[in-house]
Design a protein that fits this description.
By secondary structure, this protein is α+β, with helices and mostly antiparallel strands. It has a single domain, classed as Beta-Lactamase. The chain is built from 6 helices and 5 strands. A 5-stranded antiparallel beta sheet has the order 2-1-5-4-3.
Length: 130
Amino acid sequence: MEWEEELGSEFRDAPIAKAIVSLEGRFLAANRAFCEFLGYSEEELLHKNIASVTHHEDMLRTMELLFHVVMHGKPLPTHEKRYLCKDGQLRWGEVSATAVCGASGQPKYFLAQVIDISERKRKQEQGNSD
């Protein structure tokens, strides 16, 4: 695929979870760290879209932010969202994304990066429940 030439091993071997997502929200690729974060193989993710791994309460905000990226050509503001893992577990991620554009300047796909903040969110919730 075209993105593989552009991103190569920097994408595949990155210690931070990264995914390439079509403008329609389908997964085009996921690195090892992203697969481990969600518990899916890359092959499984290629048959999914972001809605299938995003908590339903976070989906509208996610779509609004991605639309903003495409319309304004600016990176997605870093934000927190909940992910649904293969084992049914809920995990929190701090997400940033950018639209990768072609020579014409038109967006081709999103490159997303996710940092697992589940432990931090758990500690915050425990602190609030005391």
